[in-house]
Amino acid sequence: xxxxxxxxxxxxxxxxxxxxxxxxxxxxxxxxxxxxxxxxxxxxxxxxxxxxxxxxxxxxxxxxxxxxxxxxxxxxxxxxxxxxxxxxxxxxxxxxxxxxxxxxxxxxxxxxxxxxxxxxxxxxxxxxxxxxxxxxxxxxxxxxxxxxxxxxxxxxxxxxxxxxxxxxxxxxxxxxxxxxxxxxxxxxxxxxxxxxxxxxxxxxxxxxxxxxxxxxxxxxxxxxxxxxxxxxxxxxxxxxxxxxxxxxxxxxxxxxxxxxxxxxxxxxxxxxxxxxxxxxxxxxxxxxxxxxxxxxxxxxxxxxxxxxxxxxxxxxxxxxxxxxxxxxxxxxxxxxxxxxxxxxxxxxxxxxxxxxxxxxxxxxxxxxxxxxxxxxxxxxxxxxxxxxxxxxxxxxxxxxxxxxxxxxxxxxxxxxxxxxx
Length: 421
Known about the structure:
Radius of gyration: 22 Å
Largest sheet: 7 strands, parallel
Number of strands: 13
CATH superfamily of the largest domain: Glycogen Phosphorylase B
Structural class: alpha/beta
CATH topology of the largest domain: Rossmann fold
């Protein structure tokens, strides 16, 4: 099947390489893929990396179309990018490079909706999260504002018009399915969590259980409104009483000064804290060094549909996770597989209890194996790719049934199949 994959993020970003390109490399074995991305100006100044990515895409038969991302002024820049996105998608479809549009995120799905309506192409809405509500949680948009109401109406319209909807969590399916106009008889849902390449993220050779912890760490974005830095520093501070030799590390491209400012109340932690980003190639070795991973996210509706990539990568390396369970299925996974501890709140008493439970868990000789098993069951890149392949094939079959020998005469009507784990 010829698939046009729309992504309003840059392929030069580590997350997009792990969560988009890694999938597409596998899907390109069976489908013709054209990938459209928007690259940040700073990343475009790295010609060697761009050339390496072009070779990587070409080696998998992926056609990569890169556009420049514009940030300021925010609204006008986004509208300009939206117009460029639409023109690019229309051109690719008209040149016969798309039987199906796969839209990752909200900006991409607005383009897919317009292109699909004008040129009669079905689209997949790969939601990733409840983006308007995330903007509210981060303080970038007011709940009930005209822009919020417009985006929520657009969200529902895009959901109803999509040939299939991909969400990251069972919790998101439960929420959406409870809405009468978005029930499983109206919208086809598929759950595909953010996945980790378990072939690259593996336990270090000397990892064993019981664990004598030396390094507590986290990775990814921690400054921006959704990560609870006060929880992180409170947990690490409480951990020093039980494990006095601990070191701490944040693997992130975020500003180190802002991170240290967020932890100013915890000087003992800051003295032992390392901060720094890494290229994608260095991430597996870095995560394999973690003895315990941590992630604490804002507890509100916006995170119901989120699935942190970092969790799959840490578990794949045999590393247990301490979290607040506020995001998607995180708490369920930790409890089901017994691969970490769910913290109740950020108070000193709660963090002491959390550290006590963690100390007991680290003595479990089967812990590293369970972490790896949870990653393979829940976050496997191969399983996620297989689900996308199955979805593409199902839609291809539906188009042939709808349109006979000429699938370009596709109908863009409703969805009646429900597919989720």
